[in-house]
Write a structure and sequence with these properties.
Order of helices and strands: HHHHHHHH
Largest sheet: none
Structural class: mainly alpha
Distance between the termini: 42 Å
Helix content: 55-70%
Radius of gyration: 18 Å
Oligomer: single chain
Length: 158
């Protein structure tokens, strides 16, 4: 890839991610709420521009917008008592969760075609997968995203 192509990609990423709010949420909120606010921001922005999702992962260390967002999240985690290696793991976990969830949301909701196909699998061979898919068909995208985020945040509790 030429430097010019790389620059074009970075401009696209920066243009989309520049719309992500990076200001800190109110400090008086319990630590999980500001993290949820910060996670919602790139999810909403990238959800409107799904073609940028893979580029945002590739260019995250070059994007000023991503770096500012990360700095704010690290501040929230620090204020909550997270330090050192744990803080870095927490940030990467949040970034991975947002990007992974966005990629899963793009082809369809939990009630989509893939889930329908999995729910029809032979129960003898895939009993848990089929049963889980049948239950997942009633879960909407918001509930799936924030339910997963809540589970992740429970694990990050300082």
């Amino acid at each position: 890839m030429t430097d010019r192509e790389e620059l074009k990609r970075l401009v696209v990423v920066e243009s989309a991610l520049g719309a992500v709010g990076t200001g800190a949420p109110p400090a008086e909120l319990p630590w999980r709420e500001p993290v949820e606010i910060m996670v919602r921001r790139p999810r909403d922005t990238l959800g409107a521009h799904p073609s940028v999702i893979p580029l945002s992962v590739t260019h995250r260390h070059r994007s000023r917008a991503v770096l500012r967002w990360s700095e704010t999240v690290l501040g929230i985690l620090t204020d909550a008592g997270s330090e050192g290696e744990r803080r870095g793991v927490a940030l990467r976990g949040l970034v991975a969760y947002v990007n992974g969830a966005l990629q899963l949301e793009q082809p369809g909701s939990p009630a989509g075609e893939g889930t329908v196909a999995i729910s029809a699998l032979a129960a003898e061979e895939f009993p848990l997968r089929a049963a889980t898919a049948r239950r997942a068909r009633s879960v909407d995208v918001e509930r799936e995203f924030f339910g997963g985020l809540a589970a992740l945040l429970r694990g990050l509790t300082p």
